[in-house]
Design goal:
The chain has 800 residues and is an alpha+beta fold. The protein has 5 domains: 191 residues, Nucleic acid-binding proteins (OB fold (Dihydrolipoamide Acetyltransferase, E2P)), CATH 2.40.50.140; 202 residues, Phenylalanyl-tRNA Synthetase, Chain B, domain 3 (3-Layer(bba) Sandwich); 68 residues, Phenylalanyl-tRNA Synthetase, Chain B, domain 1, CATH 3.30.56; 200 residues, BirA Bifunctional Protein, domain 2 (2-Layer Sandwich); 87 residues, Ferrodoxin-fold anticodon-binding domain (Alpha-Beta Plaits), CATH 3.30.70.380. Helices cover 27% and strands 29% of the residues. It is built from 22 helices and 41 strands. It has a 7-stranded mixed sheet, sandwiched between helices.
Length: 800
């Protein structure tokens, strides 16, 4: 946002700036980022007012002429192609060394078609003053010859280029910036007058306004001004706009641009006679409709395009750009002036979809002051009546379906002083906030209640926001820095700490196991995501065709990393990788975001032995790593999670549960997916939903003494029906209440035709007591009890 210092001084008459360094430092300390300070006359260096004293035809070019131009010091020769140049004219002359603002071309002495040209006579367009390029710019004959051109333009201003953060839309205006300057220097600010005389014609008799859907338009106002004279703007108005980088078009359009830059509220002037049916309707467009905007481009609309319409069609894209059909032209005599409030989200989405970014759309996106609309309309009407004349209709047509509620935020004095380590009084707080328009209302239950102005609606919502304002206005450099730290690092608690601790524990363990952590992007291709058969969250305004959806799992990024490693290092590699990141799920009308952990084994097993040849990682290697991980975080599988295996076209999958909750999935990546990522490696992944772990809360580690007495091991071979799952057998082991059964493992599965539809399973059982050495009889009794339970529950028999 470009801010003119001379413009600001109109609102703060007593402002004196002795040093721009001090001025900038004071505002920067308040959080206002001043990027550059530029003298407006600088771009017109080596431009002067010249007088054409002689004109003759170029001997070698029909469309060129040779002019002698008086610089006030000497007469120089200039080759000119403009048809309107004439003897006696006062013109803008660019001398050698000048840089043309419109093109960046540097002037030097050259020969054009064999004739010396010692400068250039400029048009208004070349100077960046307007779009008029039909001939050279003709100046007033009374202008002093040789006068520096920036003095002729009164371009003796300084322009600040400031960065406007998304939450400070009020800084997108000269009045908003002046408010901050006045507060910083302890001065009073005054707003411009808005006096004008209305005619007897009622606005409501001349035009009607309807808002079909107020989700996008919260307020719409209009006024008709008849018999205006559209002409060139006065010099003061052109200078204001030129100094901040805007072109002058005509007096009506210039006024709307001026008021927008002054107040931060976009507004638009329509040719009243081109409003069909004399009715304004605000509604959404139909998908696929087309509309020609002011820049003569045909735009394809969508159902999210909020439009300003008349009875027969579209006249403007709400909050973004007007239409070519109803624009102000030199033939316009009657004007309809619109000032409205359009929803920030609706404008931003439409701006992105249509790929149109304008000064108006940027201001609506940051939020404008809905209570300021009447003042803005009156201000523009006042300027039009002064500059273009006309008869102003009586009364502002104001459609405001649902009024915004006033915002009230409370602030505790003791809370502020505790946060800042200061000793502010209530009076200091109230006066400080009042200087930027935040007014004290009352005191209630220890809270100072403040009314938040509309221009800060999207910025100040909570007590801490007000505390931040007090800090900003005081200046961080002025706060007491001799405050002891009072942070208790011994007792971190809460859900967020539990999340951090869980993720760090997982990272440390996996790194210790030889895994490397990777980081991948959360935006992926919608088409490629289809291979995972999961509904993805689509991005409405994607950056590219490869980033059209949010990832539903971490496999996509992991497989890309593996492919890149294979491409750079070859197929004979061993990869042990993991990632902790966000995944996004679409569930009905809602979208969920959660943390996920993915561990991956790919390629050759990294454990090598002399007598064993190298081999690819297997499904059991992955299961072993998962078992180790679960043990580390106190999730013992016999109590908390179970495996369900299923074979599909994309490999082998294994569901992991904690109790009755889905926890994760083990997967052997199948050929179909491997082909998409152009790799033939054996790739195994295990992905877990970390929110399940977070919700378990903190699990402490407890010491359990190792028995002093020797353990007893027995092998148990049983005959099991093929329909019985390992989970069912595991449940019987866990629930049989075998007192001294310490551990069990399956180590053999045998199938034979003699067994029919049954198979043989052999378990290794370990029995141990912490009180004594177990006898064979005690162990045998427990084994018999276990066999009995297996027979009763699952019809399992001891193998003979």
């Amino acid at each position: 946002m470009k801010i003119s210092i001379n413009w600001i001084k109109e609102y703060i008459p007593n402002l004196e700036i002795h040093s721009f360094d001090d001025f900038s430092e004071k505002l920067v300390s308040r959080g206002i980022d001043i990027e550059t300070v530029q003298f407006t006359g600088e771009k017109f260096s080596n431009f002067i007012v010249g007088e054409v004293t002689e004109k003759r035809k170029h001997p070698n070019a029909d469309k060129l002429s040779i002019c002698n131009v008086n610089t006030g010091i000497e007469i120089i020769q200039v080759v000119c192609g403009a048809p309107n140049v004439a003897v006696g004219m006062k013109v803008c002359l660019a001398l050698p060394g000048a840089v043309i603002p419109d093109s960046g071309f540097k002037i030097s002495e050259v020969k054009l078609r064999g004739e010396l040209s010692q400068g250039m006579i400029c048009s208004a367009k070349e100077l960046g003053l307007s779009d008029n390029h039909e001939g050279i710019l003709v100046l007033n004959n009374e202008t002093e010859t040789g006068l520096p051109f920036h003095e002729f333009l009164n371009a003796n201003d300084y322009v600040l280029d400031i960065w406007v953060p998304p939450n400070r839309g009020d800084l997108s205006s000269h009045i908003g910036f002046a408010r901050e300057v006045a507060s910083a220097f302890g001065l009073q600010m005054k707003l411009p007058e808005t006096d004008f005389t209305e005619s007897a014609n009622l606005t409501k008799d001349l035009v009607s306004i309807e808002i079909e859907d107020n989700s996008g338009c919260k307020r719409f106002t209009g006024r008709v001004i008849k018999n205006v004279k559209v002409a060139e703007s006065p010099e003061w108005l052109k200078t204001r706009l030129i100094n901040i980088g805007l072109r002058s078009i005509n007096n009506i359009v210039d006024i709307t641009n001026f008021v927008m830059m002054e107040t931060g509220q976009p507004l638009h002037a329509f040719d009243y006679d081109k409003i069909r049916g004399k009715k304004i309707i605000v509604k959404y467009a139909n998908d696929g409709d087309e509309f020609v905007t002011l820049d003569s481009k045909r735009r394809k609309l969508n159902s999210g395009s909020l439009m300003i319409c008349d009875k027969e069609g579209y006249t403007g894209i709400a909050g973004i750009m007007g239409g070519e059909h109803s624009e102000i032209s030199s033939e316009t005599t009657n004007v309809f002036l619109e000032v409205a409030y359009f929803d920030p989200v609706v404008v931003r989405k439409n701006s992105k979809k249509l790929n149109i970014i304008t000064d108006a759309s940027q201001r609506f996106e940051k939020g404008v002051d809905i209570s300021y609309i009447e003042y803005v309309s009156n201000r523009a009407t006042c300027l039009i009546s002064q500059i273009a004349g006309g008869e102003i209709s009586k009364g502002l047509y104001d459609v405001y379906p649902e009024r915004f509620n006033n915002i009230e935020v409370g602030l505790r004095n003791d809370r502020l002083n505790k946060v800042l380590g200061e000793d502010f009084t209530e009076e200091e707080i109230i006066n400080s906030l009042y200087s930027i328009g935040i007014k004290f209302r009352s005191k209630d239950n220890g809270y100072l209640k403040f009314n938040i102005p509309e221009w800060r609606r999207y910025d100040i919502e909570r007590e801490i926001d007000l505390i931040e304002e007090v800090i900003r206005l005081k200046g961080i450099e002025n706060l007491n820095d001799d405050v002891p730290a009072q942070i208790d690092l011994k007792n971190p608690r809460g859900y967020e700490y539990n999340k951090y601790h869980t993720k760090q524990s997982l990272r440390n363990f996996l790194i210790g196991r030889g895994f490397n952590e990777i980081l991948t992007g959360s935006q992926i291709s919608r088409e490629k995501n289809k291979i995972f058969n999961e509904k993805c969250v689509l991005i409405e305004n994607p950056h590219s065709a490869e980033m059209t959806a949010m990832r539903t799992n971490l496999n996509f990024g992991m497989l890309n990393v593996i492919r890149n490693n294979v491409n750079n290092s070859g197929k004979d590699i061993s990869l042990k990788l993991f990632e902790i990141g966000k995944v996004f799920k679409s569930e009905g009308d809602s979208i969920t975001e959660s943390d996920s952990l993915l561990i991956c084994l790919a390629g050759i097993n990294d454990r090598t032995e002399i007598s064993v040849p190298s081999r690819q990682f297997s499904y059991f290697d992955l299961k072993g790593e998962v078992d180790m991980l679960m043990s580390k975080i106190n999730l013992e599988k016999r109590e908390l999670f179970y495996y369900y295996e299923s074979h599909n076209d994309n490999g082998i999958e294994c569901i992991v549960k904690l109790g009755d909750k889905y926890f994760g999935k083990l997967r052997l990546i199948g050929k179909e997916i491997l082909e998409v990522f152009d790799t033939e490696l054996n790739i195994l992944t295990a992905e877990f939903d970390l929110s399940v772990l977070y919700n378990r809360g903190s699990k402490r580690n407890f010491y359990r003494a190792i028995s002093k007495f020797p353990s007893v091991k027995r092998d148990l071979s049983v005959v099991v029906d093929e329909s019985v799952t390992y989970e069912q057998i595991e449940n019987v082991f866990n629930k049989s209440d075998i007192k001294h059964l310490n551990d069990y493992k399956i180590y053999d599965i045998y199938r034979d035709k003699k067994l029919g539809n049954k198979l043989s399973m052999t378990f290794s059982l370990e029995f141990v007591s912490h009180d004594k050495t177990l006898t064979d009889v005690e162990v045998s009794n427990e084994v018999d009890a276990l066999i009995s339970n297996l027979g009763k529950k699952l019809n399992i028999e001891l193998r003979q």
